[in-house]
Amino acid sequence: MAQLENFRLQVFRAVAEHLSFRKAAERLFLTQPAVTLQIKALENSLGVRLFDRSGNRVTLTSQGTTLLRYAGEIAALASEAERELLASDGKFSGELSLGVSTTIAQYVLPRLIGAFLVEHPRVQLSVQSGNTEEVVDLLLAGDVSIGLIEGPARHRGVHTEPFMRDELVLIVPPDSESVHFPAQQLLASSLLMREQGSGSRRVVESALEKAGFKLKAFRRVMNLDSTESIKSAVEVGLGIGFVSRWAISKELELGALKVADVRGLRITRHFSLVMPSGPALQGPAEAFRVFALARGRLLSSTSKPRTPR
Predict the structure, then answer these.
(1) pLDDT, tens digit, for every residue of 152-192?
(2) Run of H or E including 230
(3) Is the pTM of this model over 0.70?
(4) How far apart are alpha carbons 249 and 114 in whole angstroms?
């Protein structure tokens, strides 16, 4: 759908926000002379000078500052009108940028985005992944519209909303004779952990501490940068580790891994949506939030953890 905002005002806002004709041209995919031409035409039509140009420096005049305030309001109103028009049939369009922590990106997101795009085929989706801290940083920087994380978001500038239940289970090699670990056997093992900054690591550390297990009491602790690395290391006998139950369905079916339990230790958590604090989400981001909450409840209720045998 064509944007309702006047094109010359779009060009003006880009120059005013960057205070650079070159950067505005790059942002708008125009040539610099084309940007200059649009600004001159706007100044001529209004009968005022909007920018002062002195050498390589560009500054707003007092009239330009006034217009920028109103241009921002016009852009917001035009955007709101577009959203309502496009959502009148229950479907949204536009860009949706997601920040997704690693485990969710690999094992849960494919179950979400396929169905979401069926409902909203006009949405253009992009995904950036990282650990929980990295996703929160992307959100705070404005690089993504909404995040999906595994651990707590330790920042006051964001709001979190649980959307899906998860359990972290202890995986052991396929030739392991025991799937019931007493405390002494657990501490005598090499424990494979996610890296610092990982939401999964925070949850595991907290649960172990509450159960009376300190990391320094284990025979060895090895840090790995992904769930896949932990699974591969456990499979070849390098140690044991806690991973999301969503990550091991194939390995359990193939007999490549086993799930073990530790008396008195069960590690549960919720995957969460994370959003900037402040105004409510709009457009595709809000549509995805509502969808993820509903689909997360459905997946949580239909998928049960595999118990040790």
Answers:
(1) 777 778 888 999 889 999 999 999 887 888 888 899 999 99
(2) helix 227-235
(3) no
(4) 19
